[in-house]
Every structure is written in structure tokens, then in C-alpha cells.
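Cross-posting from the modeling subforum.

Setting up a comparison between two proteins and wanted a second pair of eyes on the formatting. Protein 1 (sequence, then C-alpha cells):
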Amino acid sequence: MGFHSVIDVLFTDIAPYFKTEVGGAQTHLEGNRLVLTCLAEGSWPLEFKWMRNSTDITEYTPEYRYTITLLNRKDTGLYQCAVRNRMGALIQTRADVRVAYMDNFAELEQRKTVSQGRAAILNPPAVSSYPRPQVTWFRDGFKIIPNHRV
């Protein structure tokens, strides 16, 4: 292998490739900051573009991170990063981002009248949330421990 062949090998362009793949669903709290990172390598310059639910949310830029400073429930979705250089482009597997939130109770009071010995059915309070909230019932200020009767 002569001197010229060594130079050719050193300057061969490398198509972009991902160092890691994102995987699985990730849940973050509403109001928090979220930084998604696209770890890719290949010949420079590399350019990155971000998509949510298959729609572009950025143009191609040298920035490999996508930052949401104040997460909102509408930011829930499937995020992907596309990377390109002069050798080609590649799209990363989806990152399934879910935003956890809980609103206030839509109703504060329920009144039920039942005959003695009959069952009273109380519905959980309506509250918009993700994931579904765990409900704990109290009677006269004391927690009701679930059993065969309750």
C-alpha cells in the first residue's frame, strides 16, 4: 500500500450512524425541563432535525439536542431525530415521551342517601390526569382500609 492509498483511507467520508438507539416509553412531569439527545457520528458536518408524531418541529441544524424548557401535556408524542451529512441521512427510532400531570378535582362533593343495610356506591372524583390516579378514601378524617365490604 503506497503513500497515496493511505491518504485516501484517512479522508474517506463516513455516512451518519447512531451511537445509541432510544428505546421504550419515558414519562416526565409536566412543568419539568426535557432534553432529548441525538447521539450520532459520521463525517462532519453533521446536521440534525427533530420530528414529533412524524411532523418536523425543527429544520436541519448543527444542534444535536432538542430542549423543551417547560413540559406541557401537549408535548406528549413520538419524537425522532434525523441526522444527515454529504453521504446520506438516517432517522432514529422513536422515543415515546409521555407527560404526567394532574388537574384539580372537577367536583368536590357528592351526596348519597341510602336505606340502612343497603350499599352506597361512591364514584371516584373526576380529575383529569395521566397516568390514572390512585384514589384513597377517608371517612371522618380516617383512611378507609379496603376489605371485602369496602
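Protein 2 (same layout):
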Amino acid sequence: MGRKWNNIKEKKASKDANTSRIYAKFGRQIYVAAKQGEPDPESNRALKMVLERAKTYSVPKAIIDRAIEKAKGSSDESYDELRYEGFGPNGSMVIVDALTNNVNRTASEVRAAFGKNGGNMGVSGSVSYMFDATAVIGVEGKTVDEVLELLMEADIDARDILEEDETVIIYAEPDQFHAMQEVFQRAGITEFTVAELTMLPQNYVTLSDEALAQFKKMIDALEDLEDVQRVYHNVDMDE
């Protein structure tokens, strides 16, 4: 299919370099998910999904508990979920998901992060049609054939399965996320290397060294924003 997960080593390196920022973003995501439904992951699928993803980033239990307790309390803090779309150099495309309590501030900051780094914001739908919402789960200790057999027995039709850094990566429809987790948990797998609902580009673009450096600077500027939770793009970072 030509799809590929953002390199596992790159993901772990990014996590290690930006621990406090990532933990803060997860705290907000957990609070919002818990506030929107029951503060119990067994009855709140959105919360359960955020917590599963948080595990892959080793978010401390104290941060998780604090966010859930805050949601249980009398806090009236509320956030809007926003999606911005934009362009970088040479056909590169970017999707930015944010949680904010000040829409004007966030829009201004995202626009500035694009504009100051050679990019520009587009209108809603200008980029997202080139991406597919996808469930991605990574497991260790199983071969590709073993994973395929487990999925076939559960009647789960994966889009793609590949192996990267001793991790088997499975791509599937978003509504298969929980079913896949349950299949692997029944097979004795309780920890996932990756557990994401993400946006994967239909095609990747390769940038020149100069353009890639500029693009990475733009992505860093976007990810540094407090309100920005996730950034997706279609650039091959392995080059």
C-alpha cells in the first residue's frame, strides 16, 4: 500500500526530548475525554483510547489520575476541538489538531507558526481529503504471520501489516481499533508499542535538504504550541 508509520525510533526520540510538553498535552486530552463522558475508561471509550495512547508514551500515573480527578471535580474549564489544515514547501501538507479555551489565540498562533516557516494555512478540507483516518497498533513478540492469523480468526480486515524495528504494525479502519486491542489482549499482549487513531497521508513527498530543514522547523513550531495536540503531515522524514 505504500503506507508507513512514522519511524518508531523517531517517535521514541521525540518523546524523550519533549517529555514535559507531551505529558502536559496528554493531561489536557485526558481531562477533556473524562469531562465529556464518564470518568471511567471502561464506560468511556474516548477516555480509554487516550489512556491506551498515553501508555505508549509512558505518561506517569500521577498525571493521568490528576487529570481524571480534575474532570470529576467542579472545574468548569472547557475546551474546543479544532482542526487546522495547511501547506509547507513543495507540496507538503499538514493537519493540526488542537484543544483550546481561546479559539482566536490558537488560530493566530497556528497561522504564525505556518507563516514564519515558509508555510500557509488553508481552508477546511483543503488538505484532509489527501489523508485517511486510520487505526494503528504496534505489537512485539509476534510475527507478521501470527498477527495475521489472530486478525483473520476475529474477522478483522487489516488495511496493511508490516514489520519495523521488531514491532509488527497493523493499519485498519478506525472502528476496528478496540476490536484489535481485544484480540491481542486475549493473546496475552497487554502493552502496545503504538496505539493510535491517526491521519495517514495517501502519498508521501520527498523534500530537498533545504526544504526539509525548513519543514521540520515549521513542524517543531506547531508542536511547541500549548494548544496543539497532534500534527500530521505527508513528508518522508527518513530522507
